[in-house]
Structures are given as C-alpha cells and as structure tokens.
Amino acid sequence: MTHTPPTADTEAAAHEAAEGVARAVVGDVSGGALVWIVGADAADFLHRLLTCDVRGLGVGRASAAFMLSAQGRIELALTLLRVDADRFVALSDAPADVRGALDRFLFSERVEMLDDAAAHSVLTIQGPSAPAVLEAAGLPRPSDGAHATGHLAGLPVRVWPSARSPAAGFDLLVATRDVEAALGALVGDGCSPAGAPALEHLRVLGGAPRAGAEWSPDASPLEVSDLWGVTEGKGCYPGQEVIERTLALGRPPRALVALVVEAEVKVGAAVHDPSGEIGRVTSASTLGGGPTYALALIKRRVAESDAALSIGAVPATRRPRVAL
Fold first, then answer.
1. Domain count of the chain?
2. What is the pLDDT of residues 118-145, one digit of tens each?
3. Which site among 50, 183, 209, 293 is 20 to 30 Å from 255 CA-CA?
4. Is 188 contained in some domain?
5. Of 125, 127, 124, 123, nearest to 20 (Cα)?
6. What is the pLDDT of residue 1?
C-alpha cells in the first residue's frame, strides 16, 4: 500500500497542520491493528473482556473500548464497530497484537478472529470543514457513537467520528491497501492532503490521546479520558474491580493535560510545579520553528489547580483539550 508520505520539511508540515485548523486535511493513519471478531458468541466474548457494554452496543454503533490488566492498566485501546449481530471489527492505532491478546481468553466460545489490516486502510479527515468534505464525497455523516457505510472511488467505506485534532473529524475504513484513489477523491475545495508529522501535530494540538502514547500500559483509562470507553457499573472484565474501586473512592490520582512550551520538549520529560515533579510528558510536537505542544499525565490535584507548571526550567501554559 502507498501511504501518505511523512513531510520532511517542517515548514511544509506546519502549513498542512494550519490547513487542518482552518479548513480540513486528509491523511493515511494505517499501520495499526484491525481484527474482525465474528460468531454467535462474539458479543458475549467481547463483553466479558472489554470495558464497554458490548452487549448493549447496537448494530451500526461504535464505541471506544479497553482491555485491561488485572491491575486496571491498559493492554489494548480500541475502536469497536458492531457490523451486525454476530460481527465486530476492532481497530487500534498502535500495531498491537489484538488477536493474540483476545485469543488468550477464547476457550469453547463460537468465535473466530481474523487479522485484516493487510486488506484495509484507515484514512482520517480532520478539521472544521470535515463534515462538508464527507458531503462533497457523497459519504454519510454518522452521529457520535455510530458508524455508517458508503463508497469512495468505487471502494466500500465505513465512516465514524474521531477526535484527532482541535475540531475533530472522521475516520474511514477503506477496503483497499492502495489508498491513492480514495485520497484523491477527498482532496479538493476545503480539504488538503497531510502527512504524518502534520497529523500528529494536530492530534497533540487538540489534546487527543492515542494508543501507545497516552493510552499505554503505564496508565488507566480513567486517568487519560475519564469514562470514555468505560461503562460504569459493568462487571465481568479483567481490571473491573480496580476501575469500580477508583470510581467509588473518588477519582484517579493522575489526569491528562495539554500544554504549550516555548522550547523543545521530548517525550518523557518531567513536568514540575513549585512542589517538585508531578508528572511526565507523553506526547510532544513542534513544527516550523513554533512552540512545542505537549500532553502530560500529572497529579490530578495539580491538574485541577491553578499552580504554575514548567517542563525543565521553561514555563508551561495549559491548553484546552478536544472533547472525546
């Protein structure tokens, strides 16, 4: 498959990101995992492993979902689409072994799993003009919590809302590894192509978490995104006791914040307040000689205060995050 090439020139990437803020951009975000889970017991099987209410997820609906360790830490961060009563597709931005992780818990259930990343691509349209881009391409505009089907350049497509930028947008699952025709059908008035650096910059600019970065084995979903993808009161999944205990006792000890810093910042850098170190940077992006936009998991008591923050010796200013 031909991917949208990462832009080597950071000034060009900065221009692409600016287009995503002002209008809309489209790019290829393939490279993660895609697994079909099918069979008469598929819903029950997934329901007892994931944090969301899979049984209650109707056909044509979409949900974030997590698979947790016994300690309540994230093993998989997924988007789950229910295609029909007995068919689901699970996607992850990270190249995770989704099938292998789920297969550990498959015993006598009537369930089959198929890795299908080799036959599909994932595109994203991000920016305030994203709905208009879908309309111009003749694609449906699904509501939050839903996915819809259509055709793009003669190819079957599934579309669902996604938050990968300050204005959010939509992801498209395209039934091909050759996405050039699909990308070409979306580029035009109001929509420009964007490479990986610009798409990553838009994500961090909007404060949107990503599998493998914020959603990682070092974090709980409640720290990163509150109840996003977690059905409160749902039992019967690994790590459920930790999640419910955390909710019963209050809120988790850390929270994700979006920051801007007038200096270069690396992932893993320490974040401080006047009392000392209070967290670490999980994502950072700088383009075109501008400031660094960063995400960081920090102590919740500080995140909910107005305490001055810094990364290294440089002040860090808080920024709003996109609603998931």
1. 2
2. 889 999 999 999 999 999 999 999 999 9
3. 50
4. yes
5. 127
6. 29
